[in-house]
Write a structure and sequence with these properties.
The protein is an all-beta fold. 0% of the residues lie in helices and 49% in strands. Strands 2, 4, 5, 6, 9, 10 and 11 form a seven-stranded mixed beta sheet that branches. It has a four-stranded antiparallel beta sheet with strand order 1-3-8-7, with no helix packed on it. A hairpin with a 4-residue loop joins strand 7 and strand 8. It is globular, with a radius of gyration of 13 Å.
Length: 120
């Protein structure tokens, strides 16, 4: 019902920046919140950041002050600006969306993921 396509991942050195993008297409349901998850090898999935239907945001403690989530509501496009990247940020990053308006809680729709690798 909803296609989410991420882009912008890559390889950067510690301290560098990346900007991830997520475009929603083929949407047949109303999207409320959108967010970014990440999964590193051997670790559980983590909600990195989320943004509600009215613009309120959530950040995991590990990324506060370094990452910024924002969205273009008219275009159903989501962004994650990642600054001061650390090697522990290395993971596959997934765009997610849901019908509910709040940024926290479970998400229903997922993109294919984009790899972020931060070298030391």
């Amino acid at each position: 019902q909803v296609q989410l396509v991420e882009s912008g991942g890559g390889l950067v050195q510690a301290g560098g920046s990346l900007r991830l993008s997520c475009a929603a297409a083929g949407r047949t349901v109303t999207i409320g919140a959108m967010g970014w998850y990440r999964r590193a090898p051997g670790k559980e999935r983590e909600l990195v950041a989320g943004i509600s239907s009215v613009g309120s945001t959530y950040y995991a403690d590990s990324v506060k002050g370094r990452f910024t989530i924002f969205r273009d509501y008219a275009k159903d496009t989501l962004y994650l600006q990642m600054n001061s990247l650390k090697p522990e940020d290395t993971a596959m990053y997934y765009c997610a969306a849901k019908r509910q308006w709040e940024a926290t809680g479970s998400y229903d729709y997922w993109g294919q993921g984009t790899q972020v690798t931060v070298s030391s």
